[in-house]
Amino acid sequence: MRVRHLQSHLHEEKLIFQSSLEALRGQRLGLDAVHWLRSIQALKDPLADALGGIPPGIFGFVDKELEGFRRVNITPVFVFQGMTPGPKHSMFVNRMDQQMMDAWALLASGHNNEAQKFFAVSTSRINGDFVHFIFQHMRHRGCEVLQAPYFAGTQLVHFAENGVVQAVFGPPGLLLFGLNKAIVNIDFNTSGFDWIDLDRILNKWSMTRDQFVDACMLAGTEYCLTFPYLQVSRFNFDMAITVAKQAPLVSWMQTFPTEEVKADHLEGYCVCKLLIQHSPVYHVHENAVRPSGFGNMLAVPNDYSMVLGDPLPSSLYFLIFSGILSSKLPQALAKGEWLDKYQPLVDTVEYRQLLSDLSDYRQRALGLIARHLPPYFRNKRILCKAFWENLQNRRSSEPGWTRRYLKPEQLPDDLIRWNINSRNIAQEMQRQSVSKVDFKFCLAWHTNEYLNGGPLIKDLNRRIPEDEKGDDTKAVSAIVHFMLLEHLGLIADDGGMTVLGDVLKDSPTYLQEPCLVALELMKFGLLSGDPFEAAERPFPEQVGYPQGSVDGTTKSILLLARAMSLVPMKLKSGMWNADVDFDLAAFHSLVRLVKRALRHLAEASLVSVLLKNLQRVNLLPQGLLCAAAPDDDGEGHGIMPTFMLPRACMGIVCLFFLKFQGSFKSFTRELYAKFPCCIQPLEDLSTAFRFWEDLKRCVLAIAEPLGAQELADDMEEASKLLAHQRQELGLFD
User: Fold this and answer.
1) Which distant-in-sequence residues (6+ apart) come within 8 Å of 399 by Cβ?
2) Which residue(s) pair with 491 in the sheet?
């Protein structure tokens, strides 16, 4: 839990102490993983949001930090946040609309350094997608890494109390949960660490632990607002200390200036107190998840489920704890809320509409899990809230706001039952001469079986005992791939072939995922060359973004750049030191949403398979969901679909190519000079051209049956422009 100005005040009061890392040698150190990631300076990239994907080299930077622990013989135990309730207000939300507008305006005016400063304060590099990929990478590396069922802080305190770890690293707010000492910073360069001690703090400030907790709540956390009488221009934590020592927090609750202010603050203080005292943790000795400090659920406050949601079956907690199931889907089922609190760097009508259009995928993902849970969860209505909707005050709704709900899809018991086992998957791999399960392998297998009436298709209507399928790692992986292909309409409901699956099967392996994502964007009407529309505030004038209908050349350039931006580039580690593009930033906010929805569907498919037979977890490797780094050759992928986020870099290079005038020699020289962080821009550009041709092949094939003729025509026109520019520069394969 983050407390306003606590750490800075501890520093001013000289209550942060330094020691040598030798003091931790041989110990197990529990770490709040997100707080640790925020402390790694090398991960800071102000343009990360503008580029839309995961920065290159992030896994290398993390590995370097892990090596630091190994050198000192410290065993780190990383705990990631689980199903934490959403914040009640925006006190710790750093994104500011005006600063985003200013960032784009400065960038358009050529003031890149100033623009980066604004991007840095208005975006968060440690977002949900980033955390997901880092978690899976560390798991693949063999680290002790787990996802707390709820709060990382309370789980770490429980581990410390029960001897699982000997020390804890995290924010000063850990002291709220009863921890006496916390490490707040580690520096491998100086071989030292900073730490705080609750007893020393209480002694210097002459206060009790209860008063300290009250002071932190009066100062403000992400769950409770700063006490109104402390809301001054130069707030200092010392003010909260003084107020807490004068009277208990409960007494100050009677002194709000108005009923409206009281309503805004009181609920937050109650929620914060409940979370501090009774947050659920995984109890190591009982092998169960229950509120800390209580022997059973009957002893918790009556409104407990309103804050944290309903308790889930132990099988789901196990999958959460092991990192197989991320927190989004189970939290929605438990709490009855789906929060889309991420605000894109370019807020468009298309982004907001896509959040609604993805409801079918989200309901299917929820249904895949809920079908294994008690009826209460299967019938739960889940309220959707996005960043532009009234997140702060639940008691009223803004004018024009229509509540949106999700409900787990009621899936029939006779879903397609893919009979895939170690025997038949080995035979098919031998037939195809491949060793890896992926979408291309599954589509080729399905096509062959369908056209020849093979057992994979014949067995769909036979009830086969559960233990006769999914009996090895590759079989489980194949079942999940087949389920996902079915959910996305690449395999028909009756097991037959579809137009989409038929065209995708012929794409080369290295282009399968970009092509699949492009086809998904096409489904939602988002693969086009039409300019995006501002959602509320107009786009910055300095950007010069086109509005309304545009000429054919502009439309072709937008379509080409967007499509090719789906192809990853090989990039050097470090920050992107070239241009970013306003349109591509808007486009990749949509790509992020689509890929996240695909990950949820894949994850839910896997969980649905595991909940039928939890013993299958033993078949899964540690790196089952580990995506390839954005700057490698594709090695290191897990055995499940991972949907790594691409950066918009290829699209930016494509724009440079499309608008360049000059010779091939000058183009090559300027290409390497303008994009020094690209390792092989010419080779990557050639790959992007091949992707465009393959995508056009797919669209032309599905244009008539799926009503995509307009897109097909636009791609034909764009191809003419592309061919002309390639001829002008002499760029041919």
Assistant:
1) none
2) 497
For helices 649-659 and 552-564, what crossing angle results, to 10°?
150
Record the tokens describing residue 114, joined without a space. 């100033």
Mean pLDDT of 497-505: 96
What local confidence, expressed as pLDDT, does residue 19 receive? 96
- Residue 290 CA neighbour count, 13 Å, CB half: 14
Number of other residues whose CB lies within 10 A of the CB of residue 189: 6
Encoding tokens for residue 488? Answer: 């996305």
pLDDT at 296 over 60: no
Coil, strand, or helix at residue 658?
helix
The alpha carbon torsion through 94, 98, 104, 110 (nearest 10 deg) reads -110
Tell me the HSE value of 504 on the side-chain side, using a 13 A CA sphere: 26
For residues 457-466, average pLDDT: 82
Tokens of residue 4, six digits: 């306003």
Reported confidence tier of residue 718, pLDDT bands at 50, 70, 90: very high
The whole-chain average pLDDT of the chain stands at 89
Token digits for 384? Answer: 């959707």
Q: What is the average per-residue pLDDT within 250-268?
A: 82
Mean predicted confidence (pLDDT) in 220-230? 88
Count, residues in the chain: 733
d(CA 177, CA 212): 11
d(CA 680, CA 569): 8
Tokens of 426: 């080995």
Tokens of 230: 């402390």
For residue 3, give both structure tokens. 């407390």
Distances in Å between the Cα of 435 and the Cα atoms of 194, 285, 470, 478 are 49, 42, 17, 12
Q: Among 53-62, 212-221, 391-400, where is mean pLDDT lowest?
A: 391-400
Question: What pLDDT is stored for residue 428 in this prediction?
Answer: 97
Q: Where are the domains of the chain?
A: 305-406, 422-497, 504-729
Instruction: Tell me the mean pLDDT in the region 597-613.
Output: 95
Q: At what angle do helices 439-452 and 422-432 cross, to 10 degrees?
A: 100
Sort strands 75-80 and 288-291 into parallel, antiparallel or unpaired.
unpaired
Closest CA to 686 of 510, 521, 555: 510
CB 59 within 8 A of CB 10: no
* DSSP symbols for 217-238: HHH-BSSSPPPGGG--TT--HH
> Which residues, at least 6 apart from 655, have a Cβ–Cβ distance to it below 8 Å?
557, 561, 581, 584
Q: How many CB atoms lie within 10 A of CB 54?
A: 26
Q: What is the mean pLDDT of residues 83-101?
A: 66
CA distance 644 to 658: 27
Question: What one-character-per-residue DSSP string does 34-84 give?
Answer: HHHHHT-GGG--TTHHHH-SPPTTHHHHHHHHHHHHHHTT-EEEEEE--SP
How far is it, in rounded angstroms, from Cα 279 to Cα 244?
23
- Residue 281: the pLDDT is 93
What is the value of pTM for the model shown? 0.92
CA-based nearest residue to 87, from 255, 276, 272: 272
Residue from 168, 155, 609, 677 nearest 416 by CA: 609
What is the spatial distance between Cα 595 and Cα 129, in angstroms, rounded to a whole number? 10
* Six token digits for residue 490: 């690449």
Q: Tell me, what's the pLDDT at 638?
A: 79
The pLDDT of residue 482 is above 60: yes
Amino acid, res. 31: L
- Helix extents (H) in 345-434: 349-357, 359-370, 375-378, 422-432
